[in-house]
Amino acid sequence: MTGSHIPDALANRLATATPPKLAARVRGLSDKAIAWLFITPTMILLLAINIFPLIWTIRLSFTNFRANRTNAVVKGIGLDNYTSILTDPDIWAAMQSTAHFVFWTITLQTLIGFTLAYLLDRKFRGHGFWTTIILIPMMLSPAVVGNFWRFLYQPQIGLFNYIISFFTGVDPSSFEMIGSVTLAPWSIIIVDTWMWTPYVMLICLAGLRSIPDYIYEAAEVDRASTWRQFWSITIPMALPFIMLAVLFRGIENFKMFDMVNLLTSGGPGSTTEVASITLKREAFEKWRTGFSSAFAIILFVTVFGLANIYVKALNQVKSR
Amino acid sequence: MSARSSTAHSVVEPSSTSKLVASVLVVVYALVTMIPLFWIVVTSLKSPPDSISYPPKIVFTPTIEGYCNLFTNQTRQTPEFLATLPPATTACEKVTRERNMVIVGPSNFTKRFFNSLVIAFGSTALSVFLGTIAAYGFSRFKVPLKDDLLFFILSTRMMPPIAVAIPIYLMYRELGLSDTKIGMILLYTAVNVSLAVWLLKGFIDEIPREYEEAAMIDGYTRLQAFRKVVLPQATTGIVATAIFCMIFAWNEYAFAVLLTSGDAQPAPPFIPTIIGEGGMDWPAVGAGTSLFLIPILVFTILLRKHLLRGITFGAVRK
Amino acid sequence: MTDMSQKSLMARIFCRGPWETAATAFIGAGVIMLMQPFALALYTWSFLTTLTGVVMFVIVSKFPE
User: Fold this and answer.
1) CB–CB of B282/B272 below 8 Å?
2) Contacts of A304 in chain C (CB under 8 A)
3) A21 in contact with B, Cβ within 8 Å
4) Pick the CATH number of B110-311 from 3.30.70.100, 1.10.4200.10, 1.10.3720.10, 1.10.1840.10
5) What tens digit of pLDDT does each residue of A124-155 get?
6) Of the candidates B277, B200, B202, which has an alpha carbon nearest to the alpha carbon of residue B242?
7) Inter-chain touch A302–C34, beta carbons under 8 Å
8) Domain that holds residue A243
9) Do C54 and A305 touch (CB under 8 A)?
């Protein structure tokens, strides 16, 4: 009864002396009651703020409800919203913009992130410090940072254009990152890569460090070349971690909203209109609530499916 | 992972050349990646004409004008009118007078910043509290459908914010919660609690059960054992989780921009709307951005040991 | 002997591994169909494919390892 700190030795001694059915004899609330008492509040909150709205969305998705015309008669229109979304070439185009964004951000982030992790794993002096520095961008607010990148991308005065022209000799006012149809999709890819490469790097680093030394030592004894070690030990062993990072970035970028909304808000035209931006336009600008609810459900089911795969990958990594 | 560093001259120790090459490349990447941040801070200290000059100025006379514009509203006045005013007392007044402007009152930035603080702290406290007890429940007791519940909790965090925002918008409108701090705190708590449960479950799983069982032999009840044995042991985990929740709530934009417009609006949707005379007032935006990012820099440094755990929902422990 | 083989047959049919892989494949295919730029018809059927995968995943997670 000395208070909060129980010496390990004492704890171990007591633990071995503890009868297995100890819990049943404890005074006060039963364990079962405590378990429910502890878990229920979280569940209620999630039911109220996530599940109830979700069910509401599902219901709305079968109607022609518009949130800015609450007095209009709400009609059930069956699966019409779903069929019109799934045959709409504009929304299909938005999904392709999303695909372009997701594909290139993941490719670049995985390549750069893995390379950085591989370099940091050399354990040179000060690698801890530089890791922390590199990690900073991913902790920042995507919205606030996206907004500031708009300044860096200014055609005449922006630092980005200046640096590009400094190294390539191209006139800095001859290209616009945000304003041009061909470059705008790349402008959001660059910012996302800048922000989230550290994320991939950190997970890859954990993957590289999870490879036990003796495997490399054995390969060394077998005189396997560094190149061969890399492809037959490093990559396969780090792969579950890489997959984890890729899946999570994939899910996050599939639903990307904040950074894109502030940087290009879908423009010019609809070249950078990724799925979430389309959804926002339909729901909060055109106020087609029923229609956008159906779209939200489509996106949600997709994310939910990917989340299932993600948790599978998570468990794979956990068992390592 | 520590095995490799322990054998200083093992066969797998990287050679000094490869170390040198690696360090050079990493340092170059780190410096390049810092340019945008460096530029934000530099811009915040420039005068508006300096900020949009070409070529971009590295050498300039620093001024607090950006910060003044961020915190105050100003109007243009004639020099004759300015001459009638008593001499400027504060540094900010001096700077604005030079541009033939007078300060007419504080801007909304302070309020938005304060909103951010209230919402971030409120939702963090709530989600860490809920997360700690739920994590203890999941960690120590047999809960039916445990894995399903845990997956359900995690999947709520994966939901696209805009998809959730539609019904939340309608629900909050009905309940009178739209544009209130309470509404935002509840919403952010719901998003954060999933992370809190997963992270804290990992931390609490690491505390040996024997500690509580020993305490209970000494006559503690389960609740007392939780409070006096488990909580002190889990302090590091709770603090790390709190910082993660705080960072999320602090940075969040999608819900904030769709569900708040005035009273409860936090800083992220506000900063992009800062406009000066004739276009964006980039020094003021830079100033707002710098002030907004500084807490995160501090937190990142405090958190660096637990970062990996946080971004993988506790699955990867260093 | 027959009892044993039947049990293993049941266990083989309701084993989680392959089903989970199939569900994952469905979800993956659905996601790719949703975002591919080649055929509108594939896009149209993507949602049902993903939904099938998700439902399958939820059911399959109840199967024994």
Assistant:
1) no
2) 54
3) no
4) 1.10.3720.10
5) 888 889 999 999 998 899 888 888 898 899 88
6) B200
7) yes
8) 88-318
9) yes
